[in-house]
Amino acid sequence: MVNMTALAAAIKxxxxxxxxxxxxxxxxxxxxxxxxxxxxxxxxQAAILLIALRMKRETDDENFGLLQSIQxxxxxxxxxxxxxxxxxxxxxxxxxxxxxxxxxxxxxxxxGLATISQGVKEMGPKFGVTHSQVLEQVGAKTDLSVKQxxxxxxxxxxxxxxxxxxQTTPSLYALQDLRTRIIKRPxxxxxxxxxxxxxxxxxxxxxIGFVHKAYPPVLAHLARKMGYASTLMVxxxxxxxxxxxxxxxxxxxxxxGEAVDYPISPEQFGIKQxxxxxxxxxxEQVTAEETAYLGQQALxxxxxxxxxxxxxxxxxxxxxxxxQTSQQQAANxxxxxxxxxxxxxxxxxxxx
Length: 352
Known about the structure:
The protein contains 16 helices and 9 strands. By secondary structure, it is of the alpha/beta class. The protein folds into 2 domains: 6-72, Transferase, Pyrimidine Nucleoside Phosphorylase, Chain C (Transferase, Pyrimidine Nucleoside Phosphorylase, Chain A, domain 3, Up-down Bundle), CATH 1.20.970; 79-351, Pyrimidine Nucleoside Phosphorylase, Chain A, domain 2, CATH 3.40.1030.10. The strands form 2 sheets. The chain has a 7-stranded mixed beta sheet with strand order 4-3-2-6-7-8-9, sandwiched between helices. A two-stranded parallel sheet has the order 1-5. The longest helix has 16 residues, at 305-320.
């Protein structure tokens, strides 16, 4: 008799219909994901498990088991900076708004908080414009190893870096084609944003976006289990880390593994705009080229929606993670860091 693999056993539990499906234990979920990430799993079986989990709706134990497996095959490093922020925009990018947040890590680093962002060059099913594509437009290296990114973070005149999943977690990156063929977003689309490739010497923070109201409790639980010292969950534009600029957003802060209301009002940061975010002007389609241009102009102090986006994104992080004592003080600090040319200098040193 042939022994059943962990993946096959998991499928038998979760893919048996609405009345008979059973939840996996944390260990069972991890073992099944270990098999998938090993590259030896039948891709049909891998797809069945991911779809079945989504249809059943993943439990906290299942999500954490999958995340543990992903983290275990992620290249990791500890930085020398006391506090480090990880920004996790949607890996599948943006298709309605320009992802100005590609420039936010440099702004935050110049403001006193070392920051990395993580993502991929492109990801289905959305295939939107990503941080990687924008940074490529300005000549940045988007294939840094975790070691190289850590060196940038440790450099007090840079303090930021972009890390691509192809470098941090190659075995998860290898599932891209399978995920596109699945069509619907599996739980991996959420879990990959919680991966911790670099840690702070004392504290590691997370700023992460979400769309649906069901996600904050899930994110808060997983962030606490992963060891993040503090997490800001943003109901952001296109599921990203930046909320709308024109009204209060229902954001959340993680407290002891629970999601606690943390509303973000742009007006409290001195920002008044009539639009949600940075829309493309040159055409109806968002492009990496236009995003790069608008982001660089904002870094040079040009006022407008892109500038306000960087101020809000930076200020809300500084305020939430305790580096500034009020919203307006945080906004003033970030605005001055940009207008003085400091943020642009940090950015340019990070892409040389």
